[in-house]
Amino acid sequence: LGASMIAICCTAASAAGLTVGFSQIGSESGWRAAETSVTKQEAEKRGITLKFADAQQKQENQIKAIRGFIAQGVNAILVAPVVATGWEQVLGEAKDAKIPVILLDRGIDASKDLYLTSVASDQVKEGSVAGDWLVKTVGDKPCRVVELQGTVGSTPAINRKKGFEEAIAGHKNISIARSQTGDFTRSKGKEVMEGFLKAENGGKNICAMYAHNDDMAVGAIQAIKDAGLKPGKDILVVSIDAVPDIFQAMAAGEANATVELTPNMAGPAFDALDAYLKSGKQPEKFIITQSKLYTPADDPKGEYERRKGLGY
Ligand code: AHR
Known about the structure:
Blueprint: H1 2-11, E1 19-24, H2 30-46, E2 49-54, H3 59-72, E3 76-79, H4 88-96, E4 101-104, E5 117-121, H5 123-138, E6 143-149, H6 155-168, E7 174-181, H7 186-199, E8 208-211, H8 214-226, E9 236-241, H9 244-251, E10 257-260, H10 266-279, E11 286-289, E12 293-294, H11 300-308
Parallel strand pairs: 1-2, 1-3, 3-4, 4-5, 5-11, 6-7, 6-8, 8-9, 9-10
Antiparallel strand pairs: 10-12
Helix pairs in contact: 3-4, 5-6, 7-8, 9-11
The protein binds alpha-L-arabinofuranose (AHR).
């Protein structure tokens, strides 16, 4: 009886009837595409009408979309902010219109009063989980790392860099030799890695590649192979997201570690919104998702299959 009561309570579509606007960044990565599809599924499951706007990586498009949602009088707005700055004005307009805003997966540099809650990972921790893995893996061996950063000015790029640097600080054998943005895309990851390989004696001087997301890592893996080296062996590969393609690379021995970022930010966001609308009680300001490390010891083939079934 207990279990069935819980099932009734927690699957009830109590946010049913709401109209929610979702300003998504774009579709730069496999993770982003998964977040979009999971958000749509979560809305449908709860009887929420989701108005979706793809900003194609441009903050100005996100601002336009948010203004459009306000004009339409939506009940709430979800926004995955492409960069951290420049949100005060438009979120102030949403606040004046009494429309709660929930941030998904990235943060902003603005007053916390401008949003109801933020559902995201601890991005500094993600970087430090990746860095700790590398520290443990290389031991005392000298290790020159190349870093592929995410979108300039985005919180995951800023924080994942910081966390990784903190983890390797104090380990004098490990240093970041080169660091450049790959904009979270596979094609840019490949292109930037090609440059790193050329500049580093055809890659022979590189011990590890740290990418702020798996898509850039997958692009970089291709560049490493094209340069005649073995990714995962000649150059260690560590990244963040845990999307199916990185598990495929892991199963092939071409990637060494990834830190999971759940694409289901919308589930906790809709739960918080629902509770807020029912009780008026402010939810936690930051709802933090987990950052679990996966390595080839964690059944990469199984993880690949499992994720394929989850909307990736
Ligand atoms: O904000 C989350 C990051 O954005 C993901 O790690 C990356 O894949 C995406 O583009």
